[in-house]
Amino acid sequence: MNIFPTSAIPQALAKMRRNPKRVLAFLGAVALIIAACVAAKHFAVWMVDQLPTAHAICKTMVHNTIIAAATLAHMSLMAFPFVPGAEIGLAMMISLGGTYAPLVYLSTVAALCLAFLAGRLIPEDSLARIFLKFGMVRAAELIARLRDCQPQERLGLLMGQAGSKRFTAFLLKNRCVALMAALNTPGNALIGGGGGICLVAGCSRLISFPVFLICAAIAVAPVPLVFFLIAIM
After folding, report:
1. Cα separation of 161 and 180, whole Å?
2. Neighbours of 78 (CB within 10 A)
3. Structure pTM?
4. Cα angle vertex 13, ends 9, 19, to 5°?
5. pLDDT truncated to tens, each residue of the chain (233 aa)?
């Protein structure tokens, strides 16, 4: 059942155009998101800067506490959209050494799983209404159409929407490969980062959690594996 009648969508869009307060609300929300991302990035940089000092000064309980705090910060920031979480993990392995690569690997996979599950928990009705509120009518209508569809029905509907766009159809058919490629793309923070990509993957409901877990484990593995092998050789 479509939660948005056909006639309601143009009316909502017209209402938004007449009401500049909604535009200001949208701009304010975007500004808050950008500010949160900038604050998270600066915190991540500060945390990484403290690691070499902590590692050199002491290898006691304080050191272990700092490592645990850095790992939790890495997990939290990695799950947050538009934060360069992969770069944070790389900086941790460079600062602490390859022997910590397994810890970084596990925390990264856990963070991506948290982002994916968060996407699964977002109610589709609420997501559609948010899009509609900010004037994203086509996105709201698409989510409303997908609301009661099973994964295969969703895929068929999206393939139909893709139409003659072969690249979009290719990505949908090979969505697991596309997900792993996106997670390993340098600078993917510009398109949401690991957390944002996995959040959208969870919202799409096109990939089951076991399949996602396998994809995330494979996608994250190469760099930590190289650091670990170098450390033990």
Report:
1. 23
2. 28
3. 0.72
4. 145
5. 444 444 444 555 455 555 566 666 667 777 777 777 777 767 766 766 666 665 555 555 666 777 888 788 888 888 888 877 777 788 888 887 888 899 999 999 999 999 999 999 988 888 888 888 777 788 788 888 887 777 778 888 887 776 667 888 888 889 999 999 999 888 787 888 889 999 999 988 889 999 999 999 999 999 999 999 998 88
